[in-house]
Amino acid sequence: MSHSVIRAVCPHDCPDTCALLVTVEDGVATSVRGDPQHPTTAGVLCTKVSRYTERTYHADRLLQPLRRVGKKGEGKFVAISWDEALDTIAARLKGIADPQAILPYSYAGTMGLVQGESMSARFFHKLGASRLDRTICATAGAAGYKYTLGASIGTDIEQFQDARLILIWGSNPIASNLHFWMRAQEARRRGATLIAIDPYRSLTAEKCHQHIALLPGTDAALALGMMHVLIAEDLLDHDYIARHTLGFEQLKQRVHEWPPARVAEICGIEAEQVLQLARLYGQTARSGQAVAIRTNYGVQRAHGGGMAVRNIACLPALVGAWRHAAGGVQLSLSGVFAKNSAVLERPDLMPAKTPRTINMSTIGDDLLRPASDEFGPKIEALIVYNSNPVAIAPHSGRVAQGFAREDLFTVVLEHFQTDTADYADIVLPATTQLEHVDIHAAYGHQYMMANNAAIAPLGQARPNAEIFRLLAQRMGFSEPCFQESDEQIAAQAFDTTQPRAMHFDWEALKQKGWQKVALAEAPFAQGDFPTPSGKCEFYCARMLADGLDPLPTYIAPYESAASNTALAQRYPLAMISPPARNFLNSSFVNVQSLRATEGEPHLDIHPHDAAPRAIAQGDMLRIFNDRGSFEAKARVTDKARPGLVVGLSVWWKKLAGDGKNANEVTSQQLTDMGRAPTFYDVLVQVEKATAGAKAVPAHLI
Ligand SMILES: Nc1nc2c(c(=O)[nH]1)N[C@H]1C(S)=C(S)[C@@H](COP(=O)(O)OP(=O)(O)OC[C@H]3O[C@@H](n4cnc5c(=O)[nH]c(N)nc54)[C@H](O)[C@@H]3O)O[C@H]1N2
Ligand SMILES: Nc1nc2c(c(=O)[nH]1)N[C@H]1C(S)=C(S)[C@@H](COP(=O)(O)OP(=O)(O)OC[C@H]3O[C@@H](n4cnc5c(=O)[nH]c(N)nc54)[C@H](O)[C@@H]3O)O[C@H]1N2
Ligand code: SF4
Ligand SMILES: [Mo]
């Protein structure tokens, strides 16, 4: 009997990018463990990925190409050969006169640089297809952060255990950033105070020393209020401000307009909470100890999401928190990696006239748009990989309507027959991380990571890169880059000529598993912000040039009682739909043991909001607004603050009793920066579902 242990990497869209050890016996992966030697993984995996073999060997894995025989969305398919599948696709694509009518749709099903955007990007560039603006998750916050600090660089996760105060701001690390939470726990053991800032008493908020339950989309105001107090009470690091920041005088004038009472009213909290938070932050820093902020994407899924992150990112410079390796702020660390995009993606293959860009967050509207001078050609073909848009994109009714278009040719590369795959004309079976090679950057730590293939592909599944390589052949693309192997692509993934030199050797990385990017421990202790001025920009001229307020301000949600009273009369409750712990976006929803833990779609509602609606624990509810409706079971709980309902997500529609999920009611309105979606900027009404409503079928629970 053969037995081996293979070094691999968790491919999922999670900041932790864990190092895995896969045990293989006689060609079968029998267990997946966290590598105890990898410094951030520390031998620990989340529940989802410790069950990875359950996902890989799932009875429902797609193992051969399929052609649709039923109606779009119905899910009826027959098996076909790879040759038939690839020939059909190539013939359809060749028949499209303007290649801009072809759209790739992909996100982060795998974060791998090879099976993500390498061969696929080359293929679509050469084809001259529409480009996709990949905004669905992080671009609002990333923009606000970059205007202020210059790049997605911040406090290293490996330093947080030494902080004295940690603000966990719009982040639920117990669910979505477990290895950060392990560091925060260590900091607590060493005497740190943990404060959660979140409208919902999340798993994390429940375990912090304090929880500030503000209204969704109001964080920018809270940060302005903190700055007001820090300046008014002179809890500042004047030396750091003078040397390493830009625009302090203008900032001072601006935040003067934001006293705690005004902020408290906007945020739906007490003025005293604003005051206390600012004082604790400023005084802890003043005492020479490290104050750290872990902000995450939950904070930027509302109209003013970019500004919220910008305002939060201003705080550390005011108090000189960057002087400590354990102080500062972390949103994403992706900027430490010099990804070799020019080589991986080959944008030089694009036609001279750059093709148009389609925003993935408005795919619902865009699939339904006719040809026009402004829009260009109608979308005629859609190739989806690493994503499940019918479940995860906002205003889902519109998205499904678009996918249902009979004249649209849709190809889906997948592991499973997802809500999206049900609308495909051709489904192609893709390999999982255990079956292919890849190389990864991360966004919650600073290690380059290598993934070795642990087992042979199951059935006829093929890696994404291989599928696009074969398609390129069918299309007659002759550039040598279309022949490169996955290993050859991986070996070029990082740009070793960049100043932040990433000298790595693919063969060595495969053996060792990981390698840390060498960066200063306290990246901004001496300033050196990668902004045009080299400073933390309280005043940002680039924002002015981009039509934005150059100073921190507050942008109200599109949908809130304060900003849209007429709408709030009909739909009085704010709704957020953050990740459920046992799912990863819509991945893992079909893994029986994980779905069993989540149970069925729930809606958390405060007793004050449940009572007038005669809603009791366990009632089936209908949640609705002008965009649509979905059903979920009531959990009457004060975890949701009054005026807020929470539906943990993202459910597969077809595994919910009514065939719908929370994105029925979310909107396609975009954020202030980064053209990102506003998933947590939604007003709804809630009522008991009528007697005829279907419960979740027993076999699905
Ligand atoms: N288990 C699990 N882990 C995941 C994911 C998953 O689906 N499941 N998804 C992965 C991905 S793609 C991402 S982007 C990250 C997302 O993970 P996070 O960045 O942590 O973001 P969210 O989970 O969207 O929201 C985190 C918290 O923000 C709160 N929140 C919502 N609106 C607001 C607001 O306006 N202000 C504030 N202060 N808080 C708010 C929510 O209640 C939630 O508790 O996690 C990754 N990790
Ligand atoms: N209501 C609501 N909606 C949300 C969010 C929310 O908090 N609330 N979160 C948003 C966020 S932050 C994000 S990032 C998006 C995520 O949206 P997506 O990136 O679409 O993530 P998933 O839903 O996990 O879908 C990824 C799909 O890729 C497939 N896949 C994985 N690996 C491979 C591979 O190697 N090859 C191929 N071909 N397929 C693969 C998986 O099987 C899975 O079906 O959702 C967004 N939608
Ligand atoms: S999903 Fe996140 S925590 Fe879980 S194994 Fe993957 S990287 Fe680690
Ligand atoms: Mo995300």
Question: What's the structural blueprint in terms of helices and strands?
Answer:
Blueprint: E1 3-9, E2 19-25, E3 28-34, H1 47-50, H2 52-56, E4 66-68, E5 77-79, H3 82-94, E6 102-106, H4 119-127, E7 131-133, H5 139-149, E8 165-169, H6 173-176, H7 178-189, E9 193-197, H8 203-207, E10 210-212, H9 219-232, H10 238-244, E11 245-246, H11 248-256, H12 260-267, H13 271-286, E12 291-295, H14 305-319, E13 328-330, H15 341-345, E14 357-359, H16 363-367, E15 381-385, H17 389-392, H18 396-403, E16 409-414, E17 426-429, E18 438-440, E19 447-451, H19 464-475, H20 486-491, H21 506-512, E20 514-516, E21 536-537, H22 541-545, H23 565-570, E22 573-576, H24 592-598, E23 602-605, H25 607-610, E24 620-625, E25 628-636, E26 644-646, E27 683-688
Parallel strand pairs: 6-15, 7-14, 8-9, 8-12, 9-10, 11-21, 12-13, 15-16, 16-17, 22-26, 23-25
Antiparallel strand pairs: 1-2, 2-3, 4-5, 4-17, 18-19, 19-20, 22-27, 23-26, 24-25, 24-27
The structure holds ligand MGD (2 copies), iron/sulfur cluster and molybdenum atom.
Characterise the protein shown here.
The longest helix is centred in the middle third of the chain and has 16 residues, at 271-286. The two termini are 38 Å apart. The chain has 3 domains: 66-135 and 338-431 and 452-501, Rossmann fold (3-Layer(aba) Sandwich); 155-330 and 522-545, 3-Layer(aba) Sandwich (Dimethylsulfoxide Reductase, domain 2), CATH 3.40.228; 565-700, Barwin-like endoglucanases (Beta Barrel), CATH 2.40.40.20. The relative contact order is 0.17. Mean pLDDT is 96; it is low at 695-701. Strand 24 (620-625) and strand 25 form a beta hairpin. By secondary structure, it is an alpha/beta fold. The protein contains 25 helices and 27 strands. The strands form 7 sheets. A 6-stranded mixed β-sheet has the order 5-4-17-16-15-6, covered by helices on one side. The chain has a 6-stranded mixed barrel with strand order 22-26-23-25-24-27. A 5-stranded parallel β-sheet has the order 10-9-8-12-13. Iron/sulfur cluster is lined by residues 10, 12, 14, 16-18, 45-46, 48-49, 178, 584. One ligand MGD binds next to helix 17 and strand 16.
